[in-house]
Design brief:
The complex is a heterotrimer. Chain A is mainly α. The termini of chain A are far apart. Chain B has a single domain, classed as Amino acid/polyamine transporter I, CATH 1.20.1740.10. Chain C is mainly α. Chain C has a domain of about 40 residues. Chain C contains four helices and two strands; from the N terminus they run H-E-H-H-E-H. Chain C has a two-stranded antiparallel sheet with strand order 1-2. Chain C is elongated. Chain C starts with 12 loop residues before the first helix and ends with a helix. Classes of the chains: A mainly alpha, B mainly alpha, C mainly alpha. Chains B and C meet through helix 5, helix 9, helix 14, helix 15 and helix 16 of B and helix 1, helix 2, strand 2 and helix 4 of C.
Chain lengths: ~60, ~450, ~140
């Protein structure tokens, strides 16, 4: 066991963590919102004003 | 969190937050890695001079691509880019094929980047004296981390890309001035250039990897539903992007061809890093190593962004299962498409050899450019100038389209010379996929509703 | 003249899953079958090098200096001389091909585009009819 191996295990661990995070968030999101809302995006809506924002803005302003 | 149902008329869309700088970063970020590695295989294919000719011929090809793309996409501003263009201009089956070209060109490129990054980290480990090092954990981490970043929001993702792409671009400039191109202290073109080892056939063959200088610049269109002002930002970002790349490609060739024998350069893994090594400057070595790492990250990152937009918009139109047409209510990203493409990229990066992955990516790109040339001619026929409002009108039509078509044919021949079997395998794949779409999948697609642009009826219908 | 718009059936979740898997399997097959059959990759040949000194391999003094700086040595590649540049220098691509193969490949690519454009045109007419005649 050397330092590089530690780094390798760290990389595996972090990958698993990030993957798990995405998976859990995906499942939670799918359960929280209706499928109708989630797939409500339409092509060709150039005007942002037509779209009513859901409660969250995701940290973007 | 409370149960939320859609109020009548409430919708979620992708978030419009990006500016022209992000578009530049998306386009150049995907491609700049080609300057750090990959382009030099063109040297192996036909010698250093052939690589320079290929660099400029491919540069012309991509200038046509950028001009055509700017016009069509500033008008058809929709996620999915060329896919949405094909849907409005050519028809559903072409659109399905184009969507697949996009997804596979980008996912394969993402895999290639992850493989390279893993290799680099492993090399550093070996150089530091550690025995028994592996690249796989870093390949996987690259894909997972960037997918996570993409999942969490487009603004942070592309701002990250802007920063690392700019650093990688500046690194090339620094190296260019450090080797003093005006003197012969480092630059020895006179002694190192050897003519054409394969004759003119080698020049043709070099075009295969000459594309690598620019492959992916057309991905800027994928951001169409996320830029604040598509009609302005997309042409601006795309055109400044191709200019950036033409400059970077020529500088890269000049540095590398003047410092390494072509037999080495043609098979090197990281040519710019090697050039820095040959200057004996530790500072330059570190800088170019960072540039190499950043450019692979930026490229993989942009690829995830583009591939998921294309997959998402096909799901939204039910060209693919409609579950993929979902947008995350909080992060406003096509989250299911992003997650779905993670294992696909992992499989390619984990099991397939690098040159195969690159060839698949190049071939899908090539098919896409062939489509684009015909597409723009049909676009001008069906909606002549003045009928609809275009954000940008490219000059000299139809010359760029014809040049593009000609250069594509030559490049098919170049790919045929090295990878004829893959070319056929790829065509069989797209033919089977087309049959599947035409006879099975298309029945789930709404007909008139998929035409979403507020345009008049096309001429001739 | 009002035409009824085409109403697509809704696909079940199972059907959606199956379609996704089918497409994935197809991609894997296209990528891995040529690999598995050993058909992947271009042909390569090796130049016969009689003399493996730097000069004998056609390298001038400048080239030699750069090779050595990159960590390579002259001489034939052996166990003891693992850093020999001879292998890199003598490696060449084989660009010979059969005209018949080229013709078949060209036919496949052109045929593919022809059929896709043709079929798309048929489907496109439906789309335009429904979108513009039906208001």
């Amino acid at each position: 066991m050397n330092n590089f191996q530690l780094l390798e295990y760290g990389a595996w661990g972090l990958s698993a963590l990030l993957g798990l995070w995405m998976l859990i968030d995906l499942i939670r999101t799918d359960k929280t919102y209706s499928e109708e809302l989630l797939t409500s995006s339409k092509e060709g809506e150039i005007e942002d004003a037509l779209v009513i924002d859901p409660p969250h803005q995701g940290g973007h302003l | 969190m409370t149960q939320t149902t859609a109020v009548h008329g409430e919708r979620i869309s992708l978030l419009r937050v990006l500016g022209p700088g992000h578009v530049w970063a998306l386009g150049v970020g995907i491609v700049l890695v080609g300057e750090y590695m990959g382009w030099n295989f063109a040297v192996g294919k036909g010698g250093a001079i052939a690589a320079l000719i290929a660099c400029w011929v491919a540069g012309l090809l991509y200038t046509c691509v950028a001009m055509i793309d700017s016009e069509v996409t500033s008008t058809v501003a929709a996620a999915g880019g060329q896919y949405a263009q094909a849907k409005h201009i050519v028809g559903p089956l072409m659109a399905f094929n184009v969507g697949l070209f996009l997804v596979f060109a980008y996912t394969m490129l993402e895999a290639a980047n992850a493989i390279t990054l893993g290799y680099l980290v492993q090399t550093v480990g070996s150089m530091a004296g550690f025995a028994d090092t592996h690249d796989k954990p870093f390949i996987v981490l690259t894909i997972m981390f960037l997918a996570w970043l993409n999942y969490r929001g487009v603004y942070a993702t592309l701002t990250f890309n802007l920063v690392i792409t700019a650093i990688a671009f500046v690194a090339i400039w620094v190296l260019f001035f450090a080797v003093q191109p005006w003197s012969s202290v480092y630059m020895k073109h006179g002694d190192l250039l050897t003519g054409l080892p394969y004759g003119w056939l080698g020049v043709l063959a070099a075009l295969h990897f000459g594309m690598w200088y620019y492959l992916g610049i057309e991905g800027t269109t994928q951001a169409a539903e996320e830029v604040r002002s598509p009609a302005r930002a997309l042409p601006l970002g795309t055109m400044t992007g191709i200019i950036t790349l033409l400059i970077a490609a020529t500088m890269t060739w000049y540095i590398c061809a003047g410092i390494m024998p072509w037999e080495y350069l043609g098979q090197a893994v990281t040519p710019l890093f090697d050039a820095a090594r040959l200057t004996d400057s530790t500072l330059l070595m570190v800088l170019l190593f960072i540039g190499t790492i950043f450019s692979t990250l930026a490229s993989a990152n942009g690829c995830i962004n583009d591939a998921s937009r294309a997959w998402f918009s096909m799901g939204r139109d039910r060209y693919l299962p409609q579950v993929f047409g979902a947008v995350h209510p909080k992060y406003r990203t096509p989250y299911r498409a992003i997650v779905f493409l993670v294992p696909v990229a992992l499989v390619f990066a984990y099991f397939a050899p690098l040159d195969q992955v690159i060839t698949f990516s190049i071939l899908s790109g090539l098919l896409e450019y062939t489509f684009m040339a015909i597409n723009v001619i049909m676009f001008r026929q069906k909606w002549p100038l003045g009928v609809i409002k275009r954000g940008y009108v490219h000059p000299f039509h139809p010359l760029p389209a014809l040049v593009l078509l000609l250069l594509c044919s030559v490049t098919y021949f170049a790919v045929f010379l090295g990878y004829g079997t893959q070319l056929i395998a790829m065509m069989v794949f797209y033919i089977v996929a087309s049959l599947w779409f035409a006879f099975h999948r298309y029945k789930f697609v709404r007909r008139g509703a998929q035409f979403t642009m507020p345009w008049p009826k096309p001429v001739g219908y | 003249m009002a035409k009824t718009p085409y109403k697509p059936p809704t696909q079940s979740l199972l059907g959606q899953t199956f379609d996704t898997l089918f497409l994935l399997a197809l991609v894997m097959a296209a990528l891995f079958i040529p690999l598995y059959l050993g058909l992947a990759g271009g042909g390569k040949t090796t130049l016969e090098l009689k003399d493996t000194t730097w000069a004998g391999m056609g390298q001038n003094a400048t080239m030699q200096a750069q090779w050595e700086k990159l960590g390579f040595t002259a001489g034939p590649k052996t166990e003891e001389n693992a850093t020999s540049a001879a292998e890199l220098i003598s490696s060449r691509f084989d660009y010979s091909f059969e005209p018949v193969e080229l013709a078949i490949t060209a036919l496949v690519v052109i045929g593919y585009f022809f059929i896709v454009f043709h079929w798309s045109k048929k489907e496109y007419r439906d789309v335009i009819d429904e979108r513009f005649n039906n208001k």
